[in-house]
Amino acid sequence: MKGVSNFLIDLSQRLLGEKSEVSSEKNSVSSASLLEKAKLDWYAAISLFNNLTDQDLVDHAIFNLNAVERRYSYLLKEARREHEIQKSYFREEEELKGYD
Prior knowledge:
Radius of gyration: 18 Å
Number of helices: 3
Low-confidence stretches: 24-28
Shape: elongated
Order of helices and strands: HHH
Oligomer: single chain
Structural class: mainly alpha
Helix content: over 70%
Distance between the termini: 33 Å
């Protein structure tokens, strides 16, 4: 599942022009830094939309805002899911220590 997640992140970065290649290998960038970058991209898209002076760019700004919003939401959901898995793992590990 993690490989698919990394592939989708790589693909979205390529589509957004942040990368020139899509790789199916594990990404060396941490989830936290990807999440922070997505959050900054979201803020930038909101700012672009709110500060438009050319009405011809409205469609682009809306499309861009929707895209980065979905990416940020997805990464946030994945981070929460990974956090829950880690909490569960450590909880089980602590329970097993009680049996020693």
